Amino acid sequence: MDFVSGLRCRECGRTYPAEALHVCDYCFGPLEVTYDYERVAASMTRERIASGPRSIWRYAALLPVADSTPVDLGAGFTPLIRADRLAAELGLGELWIKDDTANPTGSFKDRVVSVALTKARQLGFKIAACASTGNLANSVAAHAARAGMESVVLIPHDLETAKVTMTSVYGGRVIAVEGSYDDVNRLCAELTSEQPSWAFVNVNVRTYYAEGSKTLAFEVAEQLGWEAPDHVVVPIGSGSQLTKVAKGFEELWKVGLLDEEPSVRISGAQAEGCSPVATAFAEGTDAIRPVKPNTIAKSLAIGNPADGWYALDAIRTSGGSCAAVTDDEVVEGIRLLARTEGIFAETAGGVTIATLAKLAAQGVVRSDERVVALVTGHGLKTVEALSGIVGPSATIAPTLEAFDEAMGGTYGPADETVARSA
Amino acid sequence: MSIKVRIPTQLRTLTGGIGEVTVEGSTVGEALKALDTAHEGFAERIFDEQGSLRRFVNVFLADEDVRFLDGLSTPVTDGQTLSIVPAVAGG
């Protein structure tokens, strides 16, 4: 049994039943799932959560669908890693990385898709579809295969090779569209009107889908011993994830899972080549002007972010900030995280780390704060970004002499602490 | 100018279920006002109090977002297609 009380328009407040609706019929505003928090509070305890599955489904009471056998590949409950070496590089104190590269298809999208397809199946849909910048495509194709559903995934034609392969391998239909993500998104929105029998996870099931991102906040709080952090840095594509992370912390407080009322500053990260939210933040305006994206961070390359206003509002209300970084800084962010913490992130993770570095240098993210950075996708998805930048230190003949030369003589540096038996 | 307007599901109650309507007008704004004249109720659904497009309403002329063109003042040519599309999230 779920605890959903209905759907509510974020713009005009009109209410709707919990069906396959995604926008307000009246003003086109996005619909938000509402819960009966008193009943959730009565049902959801720390102990019950601790004995639940090691996945997003341990927080089922705050998810919009109840199902004892959800469409599940094990999304969520990813590591929260204390990042002291990265913190030292950035002049920060307590820094944690939420490592969502560890999800089944390598990105946070598994959280939202597991929720979306579980709800879609309950609503009677048999075909899963989506518009995607790649990560969502991977996840929808995989979860649809797992659920025995057909899938139709629409992607921009110029995506990274790994993302195309990781989508196609699951056997569904993959349609590459000659256009940008915003073109694909518009096509899908129009298709939803013509093909209402398909569950477009980020269109007509979006209301439910987006709720999956709250689990990032739930996990961070649980992994910190049921405490909220002081500051979270979140990448912005559509802006949905950022708003849901904010909602997640609020909900934990509402249902009594936190001892102290959270006061989490939320900061947004974008790439300069697609930074409509960061631009609006810098200009102090509410008007988010759509842009034509041009960045290596393709998973964030959404020029017309549907939840941009809400992301901006969440950032401002929380006392956070929003900044954008260049593609070179994105690559440096990927390398910095890999070098200091052993985590290989995709370009969106590079955006997060580079923005964290920038905000730390500006004193916006402070050394007295407990900081969490969301690293939302695996580096193997976007190896093109590092092409020609990292590679073997040397290519040599299989001889000791060649090796010695490559290592700079006498076989390279020795570790004197190692006891030698010879 | 004769313009085809594609209507999303959410607004088809205003057109008796029809997904495509032909209207006359020389700009995007005129075409949308003509749509409201032909099927009363469109204006209050897609325009805010100031007469601008509501922020979750996207309008595309020949598949290009009119916000990248001249907005409601964008001229239209005979036979072009306008699409009204709700904004959607992505990823």
Describe the structure in brief:
The complex is a heterodimer of chains A (422) and B (91). By secondary structure, chain A is of the alpha/beta class.
Describe the fold and architecture.
The complex is a heterodimer of chains A (422) and B (91). With 422 residues, chain A is α/β, with parallel strands linked by helices. Chain A has a domain at 80-106 and 210-386: Rossmann fold (3-Layer(aba) Sandwich). Helix content of chain A is 36%, strand content 15%. In chain A, the strands form three sheets. In chain A, strands 4-5-13-10-11-12 form a six-stranded mixed β-sheet, with helices on both faces. In chain A, a hairpin with a 5-residue loop joins strand 1 (4-9) and strand 2 (15-16). The N and C termini of chain A lie far apart (67 Å). With 91 residues, chain B is an alpha+beta fold. Chain B has a single domain (2-86), classed as Beta-grasp domain (Ubiquitin-like (UB roll), Roll), CATH 3.10.20. Helices cover 18% and strands 25% of the residues of chain B. Chain B is built from two helices and five strands; from the N terminus they run E-E-H-H-E-E-E. The radius of gyration of chain B is 12 Å and the shape is globular.
